[in-house]
Amino acid sequence: MAEESLLVPTDQYLKAGIHIGTKFRTKYMEKFIYKNRPDGLSVLNLQKIDERIKICANFLSNYKPEEIVIVSRRENGWKSIKMMSKLTGVKIFAGRYPPGVLTNTSLDKFIEAKIILVTDSWPDRNAITDAMAVGIPVIALCDTNNQSNNIDLVVPCNNKGKKSLGLFFWILTREYMKKTGMIKSDSEFKATVEDFTEE
Domains (ranges, CATH) in the chain? Predict the structure, then answer.
């Protein structure tokens, strides 16, 4: 795999542990698994992770920030999505997602979205259910133990680790900002991976 075609250098991916899966693997996620470690953990294919992050950024760049909702019930993703929201203006739910936010117009918190991204399809399932009800696409970060039901785009990665989520959202924010013209080049992107990573 040529280094220059990756979004970040291989060692940056490896240090963040974005490729470290779980001991459990679902049938659907097998195609993204590169190998199993002696300790039983599955290792995801970095090339496929990188490819899917590119697809994810391309997909999201078709939408205005206010049309995008990112949901993370998992605390390790809160700082990451708050930073992405601050830099791009996308809407977020950090913490419990109240059912009906996308479907019930009489709710105070009602949001009209055109696409959602969830950090984990299991804890964020209420948001996926709502997205299905209103017929908008769902992007989900999926670890080796995730099911892929009702998901339009699966991005394979370690969706539990602070460093992994920090790196994922740092890359996604940078790519989204480039593709939508908010910044012209990587050098204009001043945020660091640490800005996106929970302590």
Answer: 3-196 (3.40.50.10490)
